[in-house]
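User: Structure please.
Assistant: Input sequence and predicted structure:
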Amino acid sequence: MTAGLVAGFQLCAWAQAPSEPPPPPKWETAATLGFSLTSGNSDTMLFTGMIKTEKKGPQNEWGFGADGAYGETDDKVNNNYIHGFGQYNRLLSERWFLYGRADGLHDEIADVNYRFSLSPGLGYYFIKNKTTSLAAEVGPGVVIEERGGNDRTYATLRVAGRFEHKFSDTARMWAKAEYLPEISDFGNYLLNSEVGVGASLTKKLELTVILQDNYASEPAKDRKNNDLKLVTGITYKF
């Protein structure tokens, strides 16, 4: 009888014991470096680098990143740009969220001395689980730039989407696109997109291949609309 009562009290105490809270979200950071060099009929050199960090919690999501490249062909510069971004998401529910985003760009070859784009808006996760996420974002924005020696500030609409999928613990892919038309002139717009794949070499190292495309409907004088970049490098996760 006594043993039964003791066992009952222990069972009740175990049932009423509070469960341990989940561990706080951590920053996940990855840095990618790529380098190529040729010599002979043509001498070329290209250096690329990028770093991204993010933290995702039950209500707040943070993401920051920077990427850049420098390249030469026969001692003539053919790549020289740097880009950075920051984004904060505040989840309203499991699917809906508010966001604020800021981007900055300097691209010597495209004759963009600076371009800053700012946008708040509303987002929605169509898919959100441990292996796959698909989200869309829309909101107003503003672009402040010096392109081709001309300063401009104009209001935009930002429409964006991003997709991520993990095939396994060692293979993943992602894709994202962003459309920013000028509100008063939809013929002037920016279209940025990226597709990438990664395959793990070790727990910390990953082989990464990224295709980036940046399109400006009204580029600087004597510049082309489209800039396409293929980046292959080694990514270190920490």
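Confidence is low (pLDDT under 50) at residues 5-17.
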